[in-house]
Specification:
The complex is a heterotrimer of chains A (about 525), B (about 350) and C (about 300). With about 525 residues, chain A is an alpha+beta fold. Chain A is built from 16 helices and 18 strands. Chain B has 13 helices and no strands.
Chain lengths: ~525, ~350, ~300
């Protein structure tokens, strides 16, 4: 009995110490939930969690602005040769990596070579080029052909500390004399110069970052910027909810259901913040599979769908898509054909469709992604809507990996796959390329199988136009053309939604829509 | 002396035979898993590096993974690596599977050991209570509860606990192994509670213990109920034996009768079921770890399976197989030690 | 090996009772035992409860379209106006996020749970029993060694893990989930039957059948098998529950029944997203799983008590 009471005493003491420790640590701490995994190697990561981490751990030559343009960042200035092929950047001096060594032009060259050689992550965004560092502050890239996207894509060239990476690279690896290119080490460490640095990263649990006071741009930290930031690797509704209720979380991930958000909104000191993104929700129709291989049948489907009811299933404020690209990207064309539910028009189009008379014997499959259960209700709504024009629909759920596999071959691509697609950069042309260029047909980004060489040429021509005004005009034409083709249903531009504690001062809508920069941590304030 | 040496020799012989058998079983298991993993369509090297990696890198990885050889040759390479503890790279975490397992296994072990302690203590206590007050309302209550425990899958307990104690009442932390800001103890065993005690960090110990409660209890309830039922059944059987009546007649206190003469011999089935449950709990932890975001090997395994991370899948199954086989051997040893009447049989058939 | 036809009766060294008559007596005794068994079984209220539960669930599953208040809710169906309604008069168990009646979906969920259990057992029991019979009867031969060593390999890992692994490499659907579970389940029957068969093979009626030159098939299926029906039936009844649990676990992680088909595990997983506010979406399907498992366990325990009482 004595022993028992002694143990109890120890427990009580421990409890007191425990609460003291957590109270002390409450100051200026920002915790956000994210989906897992999170790859913080600049040559590997490209999803939302990774992009957000990379944006805060590393610096880039240029910085993406809220209006879709880029501004000088590590590069103070640059010149472009007359043939549009050579870009020469002059670097800011005195930029220090997290280990205290100086960032030099050779680090930029090394980062580019490393990214292209590994070839994962955002490597595909950057065009092929030769890179040379002529002195410590001058680096030049020579492209193989002119590109309107080169400058905007530099926001994905995160500059790594060459010496540090080399020192931590394993000799044994896939990359010849570069060994493993430091991939294993960079999995859980950073080699950057950005405003935050990795403090602790137990994989599958959380990424903990600390404020870097030696940041070259330290003046732009808001006064109450967090000292310590933790990206927690969970999106489980129940756990997120209890963390938020206990004040152990400042911002939730964007994957919470509307029901969960409504409940979170009901908590004291928690509000829902929404802002537009570059992500849109498409019903990708297989343009090579009857009855959707006839443009009139596709238009009939587009006119039969009830977009307003679909929006009502989403968070208030969500807008229907206008044309084939999100309205947040540069070069978006607001004057294109927009389909709204109109059963008369739908029947008219159906009458012109070669399968119109016999549409009941052409059932179509709608495949939604099993990991995104919220998609189910849209698929069921679609099914109910199509019954109005006599088109039978099978609703099917498939896990993401099966969708990736099935959309990679024309013969296994379903009639319709429902997918959210994010534009990699704030450029309408890039989204058009991602969605409708033949090169993406064998990927999940395109289930349409347009395979139209003329369209391909027009998209590439637009992308290679260096002058922004001219480029955007070409984008506009392309959008109008594709909207009339009705290759897909354009459901809505996604609104990103987070439950946010009132301790947080955060204006994501002012930041660039480029993925990852909504959470630019130096600009987020936390009050204790 | 002679008898002791004899017993030792028998023990050694038994162990040797069981080990040889286990090696055979593991070998078969490895072939089975390898086959499951390699019948998949698709190029593992391409999958590992992503759709956009340059072809030459993929080719180099194919070469390194011996994917251009025939399946039996691939298997020998794979087995050779596996024997050296190298299971290749994980597709999800992008590092060596061995590193992953070294990191995630202790978390699972901590959970399963905690659940095991609860199972044993709770199960025997409830079973004894039930047998002691046989056919009273205590007995009936325990029997009904343990029935409910046996038939309810652990993941349903987990969801209900999370709902009630994590969310509605908010008594216990609902995710992870430690709260934020609580200092981590220096790594010794990988079991945070143990490491914290070793380092004298009581606050950390207390916090880690709180995190263990919900997943631990959710995991333990099923086997605890099972233990209670078995303990009760064996004790009830032995209760009718003549020698118990004799002891009671001799005026030996009830406590002593229950403890020394009744409980001890009744423990054999309890212990043998317990050891098997302990290993099975490593598997049952799959969904419990998922629900409580517990960074253990089971959650790792499920994620690997959902993402077709073959190297990780094969490694996780093999490791769990090894644990399962070891526990089986331990059962035989413990049962043999508890009951000298049961001779160690080289090949248990049940 | 079984070429005993030429052996004279006395070679066995047993009494010279006519083996046919012996078998007749055996069979009559068996019939009488069944009658007594039912009487005993019906006196244990828990066993009877189990039987009633199992029968009720089975009937509900079979006649689901007539029993369920809203049978169309088990098919693709939307009623967003009535989404996430708490349990009440119109919807006894409430509705899910799409406006579907959870009670109706649970009743149809029984259907998929039972289909899973029945399909797995009807695949697993014949295979497992046959292998166990053969291995047990030919104990000590190479056949025994091969069958039982392979069985050991499958038994060296908890069945859930291997089932998960197999299901994860296949396309996720009900059929493949059943295949995956079946692939991992047969060894348990093999081992059970092996133990029984190797004991029975030395019983007098087997030996006497051998003596009069009965074929191997006759001995295995007419002499040995009928004597192990009770433990096999008991195990099947208990296993129905475990298969339902494993099936629901596969569905919970997305490797089993796919929505909108109402699998119970799938419904729990989908409903877990709405905890704690819309608790009914997850909790009722979870309870439905418990009810199915409980029913089969009660029944199985009743059978076991019965048969073990018979033996002693």
């Amino acid at each position: 009995m004595k022993a028992l009471s002694r143990i109890l005493l120890v427990f009580m003491a421990a409890l007191l110490i425990g609460s003291a420790v957590s109270a002390q640590d409450e100051a200026r701490s920002l915790r956000i939930t994210f989906s897992w995994p999170n790859y913080i190697d600049p040559a590997v990561g490209s999803d939302f969690a990774s992009s957000t981490s990379l944006a805060n751990l590393y610096d880039t030559l240029v910085f993406p602005m809220g209006d879709g343009t880029v501004s000088p960042w590590l590069a103070e200035s640059w010149t472009i040769s007359d043939d549009g092929l050579t870009y020469t950047f002059t670097l800011r001096q005195g930029v220090m990596f997290h280990d205290g060594s100086e960032l030099l032009a050779s680090d930029v060259a090394y980062s580019f070579t490393r990214l292209k050689e590994i070839g994962e992550g955002y490597a595909y965004l950057l065009p092929a080029a030769t890179v040379a560092a002529s002195d410590d502050t001058t680096v030049s890239f020579t492209l193989e052909q002119p590109s309107g996207l080169f400058l905007p894509s530099l926001v994905r060239l995160y500059v790594v500390n060459e010496d540090l990476v080399r020192a931590n690279a394993l000799a044994d690896g896939l990359y010849g004399e570069n060994g493993d290119y430091g991939k294993e080490w960079l999995l859980t460490h950073d080699a950057g110069s950005g405003p935050y640095m990795v403090e602790e990263f137990p994989l599958a649990e959380y990424l903990q970052m600390a404020k870097y006071d030696g940041w070259w741009n330290a003046a732009s930290f808001v006064p109450n910027a967090a000292d310590r930031v933790r990206f927690i690797g969970t999106t489980e509704t129940a756990t997120v909810r209890s963390l938020m209720a206990d004040g152990e979380l400042e911002i939730t991930d964007q994957w919470q259901t509307n029901e969960a958000l409504t409940a979170l909104d009901g908590l004291d000191g928690v509000d829902i913040k929404t802002f537009p993104t570059m992500t849109s929700f498409y019903y990708m129709m297989n343009n090579r599979l009857a009855p959707l291989d006839d443009v009139h049948c596709r238009r009939a489907v587009a006119y039969a769908f009830n977009y307003q009811q679909a929006l009502a299933l989403e968070w208030p404020g969500t807008q229907q898509m206008v044309g084939p690209v999100p309205s947040t990207v540069g070069g978006h064309n607001p004057d294109v054909t927009v389909y709204t539910r109109d059963l008369d028009k739908a029947r008219e189009e159906l009458a012109q469709c070669q399968y119109g008379a016999d549409i009941a014997s052409y059932p179509i499959d709608v495949v939604w992604i099993a990991e995104v259960p919220a998609e189910e209700r849209f698929a069921l709504l679609f099914q109910a809507n199509m019954a109005d024009i006599g088109l039978p629909v099978n609703v099917i759920s498939n896990p993401w990996l099966s969708v990736v596999e099935n959309t990679s071959r024309q013969e296994t691509s379903s009639h319709i796959v429902t997918i959210y697609v994010a534009s990699d950069l704030a450029e309408a042309g890039l989204m058009l390329q991602q969605r409708y260029h033949s090169s993406t047909a064998p990927t999940w980004q395109q289930n349409e199988w347009l395979l139209d060489p003329d369209l391909d040429a027009r998209i590439m021509d637009a992308l290679n136009t260096a002058d922004a005004g001219e480029r955007f005009a070409k984008y506009a034409e392309l959008q109008a053309y594709i909207a009339d083709l009705s290759p897909s249903l354009f459901l809505y531009d996604q609104l990103q939604k987070h439950a946010v504690s009132s301790r947080v001062e955060w204006t994501p809508e002012a930041n660039s829509p480029v993925m990852g920069y909504q959470f630019y941590l130096p600009l987020i304030g936390v009050n204790s | 002396m002679q008898r002791q040496a004899d017993a030792l020799r028998r023990l050694g012989l038994f162990l040797a035979r069981r080990l040889v058998q286990s090696i055979f079983v593991l070998f078969g298991l490895s072939i089975l898993i390898f086959t499951i993993a390699r019948v998949l369509p698709g190029d593992p090297a391409r999958t590992a590096l992503g759709a956009r990696a340059p072809q030459e890198t993929v080719d180099r990885l194919r070469e390194e993974m011996h994917l251009n050889d025939t399946l039996p040759v691939q298997y020998t390479y794979w087995l050779g690596d596996a024997l050296r503890g190298d299971f290749g790279m994980s597709l999800v975490t992008r590092r060596s599977v061995t590193t992953d397992i070294a990191e995630f296994l202790p978390a699972s072990l901590e959970l399963v050991i905690f659940a095991g302690v609860l199972t044993l203590v709770g199960g025997i206590a409830l079973g004894t209570l039930s047998a002691r007050y046989k056919d009273s309302w205590v007995d009936n209550l325990i029997r009904i509860l343990s029935y409910a425990g046996v038939v309810t899958p652990a993941f349903i307990f987990a969801i209900i606990f999370l709902l009630v104690f994590g969310l509605a009442l908010d008594w216990l932390p609902s995710i992870g192994r430690l709260s934020e800001g609580v200092p981590k103890p220096p790594l010794v065993t990988g079991l945070i509670t143990v490491d914290a005690l070793l380092a004298g960090q009581l606050a950390t110990f207390w916090d880690a213990l709180q995190h263990l409660i919900m997943p631990g209890v959710a995991l333990a309830l099923g086997s605890m109920a099972q233990e209670a039922r078995i303990t009760r059944a064996t004790m009830a059987d032995n209760l009718n034996k003549d020698y118990i009546a004799a002891e009671r007649a001799l005026g030996i206190p009830e406590r002593v009768v229950m403890g020394r003469f009744l409980l001890k011999p009744s423990l054999i089935p309890t212990i043998s079921i317990f050891a098997l449950d302990f290993a099975a709990n490593l598997a049952n932890a799959f969904l419990v770890e998922l629900i409580f975001n517990w960074p253990g090997i089971s959650r790792y395994g499920v994620n690997a399976m959902l993402r077709k991370d073959l190297n990780a899948i094969t490694a996780v199954i093999l490791i769990l197989g090894v644990v399962f086989i070891l526990m089986n051997i331990v059962v035989d040893l413990v049962v043999g030690a508890l009951d000298p009447r049961i001779r160690l049989r080289a090949a248990r058939s049940d | 090996m079984l070429n005993n036809a030429s052996q004279p009766d006395h070679a066995v060294g047993r009494s010279a009772i006519d083996p046919h008559r012996l078998a007749q007596i055996e069979r009559r005794n068996r019939r009488e035992r069944w009658g007594r068994a039912w009487y005993k079984f019906s006196r244990n209220p828990l066993s009877v409860l189990g039987l009633i539960m199992v029968v009720t669930i089975t009937l509900m599953a079979i006649f689901a379209p007539f029993v369920a208040p809203y049978p169309q809710h088990a098919e693709p169906f939307t009623d967003f106006a009535n989404a996430s309604k708490p349990p009440g008069g119109q919807y006894l168990f409430g509705t899910d996020e799409i406006g579907r009646d959870i009670l109706s979906r649970c009743i149809f969920g029984f259907r998929y749970a039972l289909v899973m259990g029945v399909a797995v057992l009807s695949l697993v029991v014949p295979v497992g029993v046959l292998l166990g019979l053969v291995a047990g009867y030919f104990q000590g031969t190479i056949i025994d060694t091969i069958i039982m060593r392979v069985t050991d390999i499958f038994l060296s890992v908890p069945p859930l893990i291997l089932a998960l692994a197999v299901a994860s490499v296949l396309q996720p659907n009900l059929t493949n989930a059943m295949l995956a579970v079946s692939l991992m389940w047969w060894p348990w029957y093999t081992r059970l039957v092996y133990g029984l068969a190797s004991a029975l093979r030395n019983e007098y009626f087997v030996v006497s059948a051998e003596t009069i030159g009965a074929g191997t098939g006759h001995i295995l299926f007419r002499e040995i098998l009928p004597n192990m029906v009770s433990p096999i039936l008991t195990k099947m009844s208990l296993d129905m529950g475990w298969v339902v649990i494993i099936g629901s676990m596969l569905s919970f992680v997305g490797l089993g029944v796919q929505p909108p088909t109402p699998g119970l595990g799938t419904m729990v997983a989908a409903g877990a997203r709405f905890l704690p506010d819309q608790w009914w979406i997850a909790i009722f399907p979870a309870l439905a799983i418990v009810v199915v498992v409980l029913g089969f366990n009660l029944l199985g325990d009743g059978l076991r008590d019965l048969f073990s009482a018979e033996e002693s």
